[in-house]
Amino acid sequence: MAHSKRILMVEDTASVATLYCSYLLPLAFDIEVAKDGGAALIALKKEPFDMVLLDLRLPDMTGMQILNWIQRECAHIPVIVMTAHGSIDVAVEAMREGAQDFLIKPCEANILRATVGRVFRQQQTVLASGEHNVEAPSPDAEHELGDFYGFIGQSPAMASVYEVIRSAAKSRATVFVTGESGTGKELCAEAIHQASDRNQGPFVAINCAAIPNSLIESELFGHVKGAFTGAASERKGAAELAHGGTLFLDEIGEMELDLQTKLLRFIQTGLVQKVGSSEQTQVDVRFVCATNRDPWLMVQAGQFREDLYYRLQVIPLSLPALRERGEDVMRIADILLAQICVEEGKQFASFSSQAQQQLKQYQWPGNVRQLQNVIRNIVVLNDGEIVTAEMLPQAVMAQAHPSLNAHQGLADGAHLTVKQGAQGETISHHCEIEPLWITEKRTIEAAIAICDGNIPQAAGRLEVSPSTLYRKLQSWQAQSGE
Question: Which of 161, 205, 224, 387 could form a disulfide with 276 if both were Cys (CB 3.0 to 4.6 A apart)?
Answer without folding.
Answer: 224
